[in-house]
């Protein structure tokens, strides 16, 4: 009887040990999953929750420009990540990966800013985050000034690709407009763009 009792006790201990091992493994798995999901502030949609996120390819001409930074996120999140790339620059390998910037997502105040971000809503974002964003539009090799920056806070230059509704960061404005492959045009007057260029060169 004693031997049988010892056997039953051993089986019970084995089951309990296996249960705890499974529990610890499951908790570890959940923790890893939680870390892998991007923290998204405000009304930004987490890419991992979309079944088919759209990451549109940018024009080959822009892709080869070192003055342009295109973060590999869905189009609707491209505005936020382009801003983060400017605020928290990363110059190491794979700098176009969202994982290099997603830890800073909760620093952005997206109050009253809908996603995807429209050019007309950039003013709201500027006020929320104390930044000055100038938005240029790319269309078949032509660059159009769409929006002047507020002039308050950190200056950021974004390029809006109208055909695919995507933003990319202009890291170096002077290098960008010096490219022979692009044509600078305007919404208002050519003088505004030329003046803006000269102002940036003098900074």
Range of strand content: 15-25%
Chain-averaged pLDDT: 79
> Quick one: biggest sheet?
6 strands, mixed
How many β-strand stretches? 6
N- to C-terminal distance: 91 Å
Radius of gyration: 25 Å
User: Which residue ranges are poorly predicted, with pLDDT under 50 across at least 5 consecutive positions?
Assistant: 36-42, 45-50, 187-195
Shape: elongated
H/E element sequence: HHEHHEEEEHEH
**Which structural class best describes the helix and strand composition?**
alpha/beta
Alpha plus pi helix count = 6
Residue share in helix: 25-40%
Strand neighbour order, sheet with most strands: 1-5-4-2-3-6
Summarize the structure.
The protein has 203 residues and is an alpha/beta fold.
Task: Describe the structure in your own words.
- The chain is α/β, with parallel strands linked by helices and 203 residues long.
- It has helices at 2-36, 60-63, 78-87, 122-129, 173-177, 190-202; strands at residues 68-69, 131-139, 142-147, 154-161, 166-170, 183-184.
- The chain has a six-stranded mixed beta sheet.
- It is elongated, with a radius of gyration of 25 Å.
Lay out the secondary structure.
Blueprint (H helix, E strand, L loop, with lengths): L1 H35 L23 H4 L4 E2 L8 H10 L34 H8 L1 E9 L2 E6 L6 E8 L4 E5 L2 H5 L5 E2 L5 H13 L1
Parallel strand pairs: 2-4, 3-6
Antiparallel strand pairs: 1-5, 2-3, 4-5
């Amino acid at each position: 009887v004693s031997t049988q009792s010892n056997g039953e006790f051993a089986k019970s201990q084995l089951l309990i040990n296996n249960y705890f091992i499974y529990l610890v493994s499951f908790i570890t798995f959940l923790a890893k999953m939680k870390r892998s999901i991007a923290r998204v502030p405000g009304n930004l949609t987490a890419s991992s929750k979309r079944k088919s996120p759209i990451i549109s390819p940018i024009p080959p001409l822009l892709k080869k420009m070192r003055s342009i930074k295109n973060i590999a996120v869905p189009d609707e999140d491209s505005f936020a990540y382009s801003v983060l790339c400017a605020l928290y620059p990363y110059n190491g390998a794979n700098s176009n990966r969202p994982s290099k910037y997603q830890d800073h997502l909760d620093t952005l105040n997206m109050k009253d800013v809908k996603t995807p971000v429209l050019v007309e809503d950039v003013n709201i974002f500027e006020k929320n985050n104390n930044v000055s964003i100038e938005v240029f539009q790319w269309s078949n090799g032509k660059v159009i000034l769409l929006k002047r920056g507020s002039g308050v806070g950190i200056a950021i230059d974004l390029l809006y690709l109208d055909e695919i509704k995507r933003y990319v960061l202009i890291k170096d404005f002077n290098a960008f407009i010096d490219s022979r492959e692009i044509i600078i045009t305007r919404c208002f007057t050519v003088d505004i763009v030329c003046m803006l260029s000269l102002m940036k060169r003098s900074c």
